[in-house]
Every structure is written in structure tokens, then in C-alpha cells.
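About this split. The held-out portion is used to measure sequence recovery: a designer receives only the C-alpha cells and must propose an amino acid at every position. Recovery is the fraction of positions where the proposal matches the reference. Here is one held-out target exactly as it appears in the evaluation file.
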């Protein structure tokens, strides 16, 4: 589900430039359509299909779309129709949509891009502490293993310091909920991280939403 009614980047990626022409989350929240009218079925390479709810038509007041009473009803309808709902949200630091959506979520999965400034990660940690939904995991993107790629040698030179792997200097974001260990490359940007928060026995086996 594309929960970014502003940029709708996931909708545009999956459906193309005309992806916002059809109905989606915005219309579902406003009560104009039912869930089965908003969800698209996308064919996958293995013959399976993925149910996808696009963002919907652009709104002059996108912030209100996710703060109205209809958003709770829309999420309840999705819960009743699907075993697992994953919501692609806007960036946490840019707009206030994530706090609104987090009140309806069972858990948060944080996506961190390689090279993100460490002070931004620290601010993310601070804001995550204020959200009602627990942090259940991370996805660290735009990474590479420093070796050859299918298209030739890695153009990024590997840097070693004192015989340790790159990203040896580290800082720990120690706060509850645990945000794990973030490593920097010496200039205050995220370089590598295990990104695995500890889970209690009751949380183990739970699927992130």
C-alpha cells in the first residue's frame, strides 16, 4: 500500500506515469470507493499476484487525507481483507504523516539509506521513541559488498584503516526502543549496521507490518 499521498513514489514506480489517474488510498479514505475497487493486482514473475493499493489522485491538502476519520475505517477494512498489510510511508523527518499512520500500525520497519547523515539518524531515533507503534526492524539500502558487480568491478574504492573493515568506527544509539548500532564512515554518515533490534519472546515470530 502506498501511504505517501504526497509524492506517491511507489505508485509511480509500479504503475507508471498514469498511476495516479485511477482511484486509491485517497478515495478509499474519503469513502468514495470500497477496498476491492481501489486495490490493483500486479502480476509477479513467478505467476503470483501482488495486491497493491495506490496512493490515489493528488490532493490539494494531502495532510488532511491521513488525519480524517475515514483513514481508521479504511485500515480496518484492509485488516479484515488481508493477512499482512505493508504501508510505504513518506520519510519520517519530512512530514507529519508517519506519526498519524503509526497509530494504526502494529509495528514500524525503518528504511535507512546508506550515506544518511548520523545527526539525521539520531533525530529519527528521538522521534521513533514518541510513536505508539514499536520498531520491529530495519532495511539498509543502497549498499554494496565492495567487490565486483554483474556489470564489472565496483567503481567505489575500498578504504581500510588499521586492518579493520570499512565502517570500523561506530556509535551506538542507546535509547528505548533500541535502535541498534549505527556505524559511520568517519564523516558522520551511515556506512554499515547490523540493524537488528532485540525482540522479546512475545515479539519473536511476529511479522512486521
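Reference sequence for scoring:
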Amino acid at each position: 500500500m502506498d501511504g505517501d499521498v504526497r509524492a506517491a513514489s511507489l505508485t509511480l514506480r509500479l504503475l507508471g506515469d498514469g498511476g495516479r489517474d485511477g482511484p486509491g488510498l485517497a478515495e478509499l479514505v474519503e469513502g468514495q470507493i470500497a477496498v476491492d475497487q481501489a486495490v490493483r493486482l500486479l502480476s509477479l514473475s513467478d505467476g503470483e499476484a501482488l495486491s497493491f493499493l495506490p496512493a490515489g489522485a493528488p490532493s490539494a491538502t494531502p495532510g488532511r487525507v491521513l488525519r480524517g476519520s475515514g483513514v481508521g475505517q479504511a485500515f480496518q477494512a484492509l485488516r479484515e481483507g488481508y493477512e499482512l498489510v505493508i504501508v510505504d510511508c513518506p520519510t519520517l523527518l519530512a512530514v507529519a504523516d508517519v506519526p498519524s499512520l503509526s497509530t494504526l500500525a502494529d509495528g514500524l520497519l525503518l528504511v535507512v539509506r546508506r550515506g544518511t547523515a548520523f545527526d539525521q539518524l539520531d533525530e529519527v531515533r528521538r522521534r521513533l521513541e514518541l510513536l505508539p507503534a514499536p520498531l520491529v526492524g530495519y532495511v539498509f539500502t543502497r549498499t554494496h559488498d565492495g567487490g565486483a558487480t554483474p556489470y564489472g568491478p565496483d567503481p567505489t574504492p575500498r578504504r581500510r584503516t588499521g586492518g579493520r573493515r570499512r565502517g570500523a568506527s561506530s556509535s551506538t544509539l542507546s535509547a528505548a526502543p533500541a535502535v541498534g548500532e549505527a556505524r559511520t564512515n568517519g564523516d558522520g554518515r551511515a556506512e554499515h549496521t547490523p540493524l537488528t533490534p532485540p525482540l522479546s519472546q512475545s515479539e519473536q515470530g511476529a511479522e512486521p507490518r
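Annotator remark: The first strand starts at residue 40 and ends at 43.
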